[in-house]
């Protein structure tokens, strides 16, 4: 613990904005609240934030609501601002529970705890195949230990039952679509289709695929509009792309939020969508002189045509650029002019 606390301290001195955790994923999943609090205390000393991919967004382990309560507890015990990445109600077991999540967050805010979140505006997520379907206990000890459990008749029997339930939580084998696998014969196919090709049940196919291939990615259609809209309407939820490859959010999140959900669907107003995508984010992370059009601020400007500003990236073609962007200035340099890249490289690393 002393070594980890010193690593956080050094990171903050080097200019980090805060501490992040991935408590859903192994090995982060094996850290308890006490450990997280001990590290967050150090980040708080340097006015950092705590950004968490929560322990559960569904019903995998502790459940969505308990995971939100745990994130809030870190803020309550240390005073550190809490930021949830990427807020959602994932899977059939928790659909509709966004209302309870909102209540938990806003009650914490009334207590004086700073709690915010980010959201990508899609009904499907993308993550690693293994953490999507393999229960966390089975990953204790690393990959070799997992392989041994696959080979143990007793463990394998338990695993098949729990894998099947995890597939159900994600909407079924047809709702899990492989992405960025590096294998053309799997790309874009569902777990159901791949299992049929292998002449295996979906749970048996999972064990086979995890045994044979490392780093498989999967798109999971696991959210509903009711929850997406409820989170999007909160002033403490900002736009985030979670820019991983193979999902349209990498190229489309901001254009989809502004062009589709604000301008077409009218879920939120245009000013509110821009606020959630600029100044509010800068405020949450404490990024000085960014996010506003104001004298003395860095000239980071995007000029777009509201009639044409739309996302074109899809799950089938995730790397399509948005349309309708006329001009972009980064740190005052003109990097997109009349819709074309000027060749300027004007970005810089930001430090706290």
Structure overview:
The chain is an alpha/beta fold and 352 residues long. Among the domains are: 126-221, no CATH class; 245-352, no CATH class. Helix content is 40%, strand content 15%. It has 13 helices and twelve strands. It has helices at residues 2-13, 33-45, 64-78, 98-110, 129-133, 143-151, 153-169, 191-198, 202-212, 225-232, 249-264, 270-276, 279-285, and strands spanning 18-22, 49-53, 82-85, 115-119, 124-128, 176-179, 217-221, 237-239, 301-304, 325-330, 333-337, 340-341. The protein has a five-stranded parallel sheet with strand order 1-2-3-4-8, with helices on both faces. Strands 9-10-11-12 form a four-stranded antiparallel sheet, with no helix packed on it. Strand 1, helix 2 (33-45) and strand 2 form a beta-alpha-beta unit. Helix 8 (191-198) crosses helix 9. The longest helix has 17 residues, at 153-169. The protein is globular and about 70 Å long. The two termini are 24 Å apart. 37% of the residues are buried. The mean pLDDT is 96.
């Amino acid at each position: 613990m002393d070594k980890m606390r010193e690593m956080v301290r050094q990171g903050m001195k080097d200019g980090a904005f805060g501490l992040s955790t991935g408590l859903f994923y192994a090995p982060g999943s094996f850290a308890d609240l006490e450990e997280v609090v001990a590290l967050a205390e150090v980040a708080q000393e340097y006015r950092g934030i705590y950004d968490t991919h929560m322990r559960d967004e569904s019903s995998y382990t502790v459940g969505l609501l308990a995971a939100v309560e745990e994130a809030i507890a870190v803020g309550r015990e240390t005073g550190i601002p809490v930021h949830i990445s990427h807020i959602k109600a994932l899977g059939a077991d928790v659909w509709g529970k966004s209302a309870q999540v909102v209540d938990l967050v806003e009650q914490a805010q009334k207590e004086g705890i700073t709690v915010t979140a980010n959201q990508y505006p899609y009904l499907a997520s993308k993550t690693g195949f293994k953490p999507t379907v393999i229960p966390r206990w089975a990953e204790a000890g690393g990959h070799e230990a997992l392989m041994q459990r696959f080979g143990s008749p007793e463990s394998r029997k338990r695993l098949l039952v729990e894998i099947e339930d995890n597939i159900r939580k994600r909407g079924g084998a047809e709702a899990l679509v492989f992405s960025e696998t590096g294998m053309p014969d799997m790309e874009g196919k569902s777990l159901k289709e791949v299992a049929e090709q292998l002449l295996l049940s979906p749970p048996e196919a999972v064990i086979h695929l995890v045994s044979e291939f490392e780093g498989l990615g999967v798109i999971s259609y696991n959210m509903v509009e009711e929850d997406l809209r409820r989170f999007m309407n909160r002033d403490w939820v900002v736009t985030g792309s979670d820019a991983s490859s193979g999902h349209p959010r990498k190229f489309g999140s901001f254009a989809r939020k502004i062009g589709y959900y604000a301008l077409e669907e009218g879920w939120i107003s245009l000013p509110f969508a821009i606020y959630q995508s600029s100044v509010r984010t800068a405020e949450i992370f404490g990024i000085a002189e960014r996010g506003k059009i104001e004298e003395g601020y860095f000239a980071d400007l995007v000029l777009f045509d509201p009639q044409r500003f739309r996302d074109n990236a899809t799950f089938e073609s995730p790397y399509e650029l948005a349309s309708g962007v006329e001009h972009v200035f980064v740190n005052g340099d003109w990097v997109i002019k009349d819709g074309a890249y000027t060749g300027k490289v004007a970005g810089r690393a930001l430090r706290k």
